[in-house]
Amino acid sequence: MAFKRILVIRTGGIGDLVLSLPLLMALRKFYPRAQIEVMGHRSRLELLEGRYYAQRVCSVEQPGMASFFVQNGMLPEKLAKYFASFDLLVSMVSDPDGLFSANLRRAGVEKVIPIASLPRSGSGHYSHYLLSQLRHWGVKAGLTEPKLFLTEADREYASQFWREHGFGRVLAIHAGSGSPRKMWRPEGFAQVANWAIEKLGMQVLLVSGPADQQATHQVLQGMESRKSLMLENFPLTKLAALFQKCRAFVGNDSGITHISSAVGTPTVAVFGPSDPRIWAPQGKHTAIVKSSFPCSPCTRESMYRCGRQKCMDSITAEEVRKTVEKLLEGS
């Protein structure tokens, strides 16, 4: 069936969105004439709007949205008509009882493809799992790496930024993560930054979000040189454009790390409690430094019970430096 209008609902974090890009790519290729719209958290969807994947994006925080998660609930007319205007709806929201999908069909959506927001045990990497779910519903989907597309304006912004700050070869570092339990020691990042400046002649770009300020300032305090610049709370599209000009990137298991990988920057991701076989950034230009601690990776429940992430503490700056070196040699 040739669908004309497709809506993809993608909630979750930045990393979840980036790892969903192969699914969006598959839909774009399989339905090349369809208008694709993505609903999710508005600030994150700027990475997609007008950048190949979606003609339009919209916020999931719509009045009356909660009614679609209630059995036989009263569906707001305006929202029901909006959903019914799509021929195909791909839902990646937490819907264990199937109420959301059932109410979408009640609203008049012709075809709903529900995909569990978390992969089942043994289903492989998350992006591969999403593609397998599409194939289950008859959508041909080959394996591709997550890729973010930049506009000419994005690239021009980054070039101007480089000129204004006199940048040459730059190492980007993001010391934060969605969970403090997935964060490597700030002093480890500082040691890598010092090495990159002293041994490789690089400059350092420190990236900080609203929840990363303490870790970022600790990295800055541990740096011996001031050949660095800190970016605080930058729009995601601007970060993506700046990352693409960087020589390399080092970060934790975080959405920001996935952005770096998705624009093709040589990316090193530090993993401890989470499983890189499921959540790692993808591509030949990426590398994982993971803990060899016996209990790593662990379940989410175990991670939150753990008072101190010994798995993250066990990773040395030397391991990370060698991984960066190897990536740089191969790029």
Describe the structure.
With 331 residues, this protein is an alpha/beta fold. The protein folds into 2 domains: 5-136, Glycogen Phosphorylase B (Rossmann fold), CATH 3.40.50.2000; 152-329, Glycogen Phosphorylase B (Rossmann fold, 3-Layer(aba) Sandwich). The chain contains 15 helices and 11 strands. Strands 8-7-6-9-10-11 form a 6-stranded parallel β-sheet, sandwiched between helices. Helix 11 (255-262) links the parallel strand 9 (248-252) and strand 10 (267-271). The longest helix has 15 residues, at 186-200. 43% of the residues are buried. The model has no long low-confidence stretch (mean pLDDT 92).
Please sum up the structure shown.
The protein is an alpha/beta fold. It has helices at 14-19, 21-30, 42-45, 77-84, 99-107, 126-136, 152-165, 186-200, 213-222, 236-245, 255-262, 276-279, 300-305, 310-313, 317-329; strands at residues 5-10, 35-40, 56-59, 88-92, 111-114, 170-174, 203-208, 228-232, 248-252, 267-271, 286-290.
| Terminal Cα span | 43 Å
Shape: globular
**What is the CATH homologous superfamily assignment of the largest domain?**
Glycogen Phosphorylase B
Structural class from helices and strands?
Answer: alpha/beta
The CATH first-level class of the largest domain comes to Alpha Beta
In round numbers, the mean pLDDT is 92
Helix content: 25-40%
**Proportion of residues in extended strands:** 15-25%
Stretches with pLDDT under 50, minimum 5 residues: none
> CATH topology of the largest domain, which one?
Rossmann fold
What is the CATH architecture descriptor of the largest domain? 3-Layer(aba) Sandwich
SSE succession: EHHEHEHEHEHHEHEHEHEHEHEHHH
Total tally of structural domains: 2
